[in-house]
Amino acid sequence: MAKKTVATLQGKSKRLTKAIKMVKSPKSGAYTFVESVMPPEMVNEWLTK
Question: Rounded to an integer, what distance in angstroms lies between the CA atom of residue 5 and that of residue 7?
Answer without folding.
Answer: 7
